[in-house]
Amino acid sequence: MKINSAIPVLNFTSKEQNINAEKQQKPKQEKKYVDPLTSWPLRGLGYTNDVGIAINELAPSAARLFWIPALMYFGADIYDKYKNKGDKYKPNPERACSQAVFQACASIIFPAIFGHMGMSAFSHIDKLRGEKLSTNAKEQTMRFIKSHTALHEVLEEGRDREETLKKFNETFDKLYKAHQKNYKNKNLLVKVYDNLLANSKLGAIANSDKETLKQYAKTQFLGILDNCKDTEVAKNVIDKKIFRLKAWKSLGAFTAIILAAQPVDHFVEHIVKKFVRPQMAKIVNPRTNQMNDIKMEKFGQSKTEEKSQKIG
Question: What is the overall mean pLDDT for the chain?
């Protein structure tokens, strides 16, 4: 009589083979494609124009240079989206047009708008401290003092101090009156644009309290008379003060651009997805759309024929 064991023999070798077979059968997970143009440090090139916008008040020439790498980056990004779909070569003009609209809005137009709005906002915030005047009003007043000092040679030896101060007050009154008259004749749209985007170049002095502004101008002018020996020294002192005022506005531009960056990206992405891409598809692929319409018409006709046959 043959006795069989009730406990099955464990076949470790076969199990190991099965495990190895399962490992071999499992496909290797593909690495997720990462666009090199959206990774640092290349991504940083797309922000250089933001720096240019912010420092435009401080150094216009340097600001223009900061646009060069940004525009090169935008061009490379649009061309890359045209040629490639992820890591696959698949030219598509619709994709390129959508990316061009995104870059134009999210990287150029909106940063410029918010940058100038930030400058204007920080200029108005300046009214809450110190002399209770906007940064732009102070800057324009300092420019007036600079030109008046050089034009009338107020630092020459032997000039009467009281007469010099009287002449300054008279000239400043004429300046304030001219600014008010000029600003008063502007329409509402010009005034809104001036306050929001043009750094109040037209209305900074006109919208300031005359006596407050005049006292600020007089104090600054007396400081020049007391502390500067000649016109060149006065020019350097005034330029430093103007630079500090511009730096405050540039800080406003940086702040606004940084705060608005993410909301702007999301907003523009939504607009591109919702409106731009459908329109681009109609423009770029009209033949495809026509073929789809023809197919839909044929499909509708066949359905109608089937219904009529069933009824008959």
Answer: 83
